[in-house]
Amino acid sequence: MNATAILIGLGPLLGWGLYPTIASKIGGRPVNQILGSTIGTLIFALIFALINGMSLPGGMDLVFSILSGVGWATAQIITFQSFTLVGSSRAMPITTAFQLLGASVWGVFALGNWPGMSAKLLGGFALILIILGAWMTVWTEEKTQEKASILKKAILLLAVGEIGYWAYSAAPQATSINGMQAFLPQAIGMLLVAVVYSVFLGFKDKEKSAFTEVVSYKHIFSGFFFAFAALTYLISAQPDMNGLATGFILSQTSVVLATLTGIWFLGQKKTKKEMTITIIGLVLILAAAAITVTI
Q1: DSSP per residue over 10-34, as a string?
Q2: pTM (2 decimals)?
Q3: Collapsing DSSP states into helix, strand and coil, what is residue 60?
Q4: What is the pLDDT of residues 162-183, one digit of tens each?
Q5: Among 228, 237, 235, 278, which Cα is nearest to 255's?
């Protein structure tokens, strides 16, 4: 493994680590965030495809790649909704934990991962670490019924959103193309969901349309960060770079940056004790990710 491969593998650390914080900082409603982000992602994907002379795949490869993007955008809308409830610094570790859990369960039951009892026991231990780590990141000293109710709602939303993130990862496995070739149709699927969602809300609230709000287009900038992360992860996961396992581990470091920047730059304050427990929780999630992809 060379230095170039490692640097590319750390692309998601910056992209996915800063994306939720930048999106939250720019502000607006979830519909503004998803519309602008997906426009930015499509612009990035189009430029990448043109530079590399890539055309759209055909047939079911195109369909599944678009469905992959549809899954991500649907999940991301739900994640943005959770940001309004508990903030990105609490929501991101939870959604990362759900994604790790989903990927692990999918790998065991659909792909035959973790063969043998020892592998399953080690994998089960990693899943316990993920759950414990996620719980630690949302732990608070000041417990009220209202806060507990809001947190429960956010967790339920993120659990539902995991279905979309699972589709984002699983759908391309049904194609015969590589991740870089699926990048552009994924971006198309993302924007389709954002447009439909924006039109629906526009009819529902005729005084507010995401298409006419300036803040929507400010989020094109945040979309560049997501697209950069997605592309560098796809490159990092190639066999001649870091490979899927190491690439996945490196990408999960983004949860640390997303959580800490949310606390430092968005005013999502934690007490000293809460901060200590949050950091321990993040370490547990990263350790579990390392375990699950090396079994």
Answers
A1: THHHHHHHHHHHHHHHH---HHHHH
A2: 0.86
A3: helix
A4: 999 888 877 877 788 887 898 9
A5: 278
